[in-house]
Structure to design on (100 residues):
């Protein structure tokens, strides 16, 4: 009888521990990746909703696969504004172009 109770307790503990790793990944939300211009690069593991910034200004969220985003940081005349173009490819990778 004791052996059955011990096995039941071990099984319950095992299920409880296994559930700890399920669900949200615990990363605490979207990541932010910053770039300084000029740069054009590809990020293989971009996640929809992550934030990409260019020259420390504004930024844009990573779009879903197959979509794109363009952003301009500080477009006022005479400023050293920057532009950010994000293109999410069908394979999930992200092409980032950060320019002055």
């Amino acid at each position: 009888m004791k052996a059955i109770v011990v096995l039941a307790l071990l099984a319950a503990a095992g299920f409880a521990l296994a559930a700890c790793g399920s669900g949200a990944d615990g990363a605490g939300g979207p990541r932010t990746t910053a770039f300084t211009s000029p740069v054009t690069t590809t990020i293989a593991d971009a996640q929809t909703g992550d934030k990409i910034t260019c020259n420390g200004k504004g930024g844009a969220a990573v779009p879903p696969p197959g979509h794109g985003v363009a952003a301009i940081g500080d477009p006022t005349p005479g400023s050293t504004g920057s532009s950010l173009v994000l293109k999410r490819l069908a394979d999930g990778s992200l092409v980032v172009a950060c320019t002055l």
Summary: Residues 30-99 form one domain. The first strand starts at residue 32 and ends at 35.
